[in-house]
Amino acid sequence: MVGKLIKEYLVENGIKQSFLSQKTGLSESVISDICIHDRKLDVIEYKKICDALNVPLNYFVDKAKTAE
Questions:
Q1: What is the phi-psi region of residue 41: left when phi exceeds 0, alpha when psi lies from -120 to 50, beta otherwise?
Q2: With 90 as the cut, is the pLDDT of residue 63 above it?
Q3: What angle, 0 to 180 degrees and rounded to 10, lies between the N-to-C axes of helices 28-36 and 17-24?
Q4: Helix residue ranges, H only, the chain
């Protein structure tokens, strides 16, 4: 669920997955797997993504909880 929310955020804000890859140091295939296949994130990957997008750590988790 979090991966889908990250993808929605990227689309809504006109951010490319390649940009997120560069900002996080994660490969584009990892970013794609997270966004498209909703691959589970480890804590370090999640923190890197939140830092790169300049959102609080609870941003996507809270959205996922409210969507349940």
A1: beta
A2: no
A3: 120
A4: 2-12, 17-24, 28-36, 43-53, 59-67
| pLDDT of 5 over the 80 cut | yes
Domains of the chain, earliest start first:
2-60 (1.10.260.40)
Give 48: exposed, middle or buried? Use CB within 10 Å, 0-12, 13-18, 19+. middle
Q: What is the dihedral of CA 36, 34, 25, 18, to 10 degrees?
A: 10
pLDDT digits (tens, 9 = 90+) for 30-58: 999 999 887 888 999 999 999 999 999 99
Question: What is the rounded distance in angstroms from the CA atom of residue 68 to the CA atom of residue 57?
Answer: 19
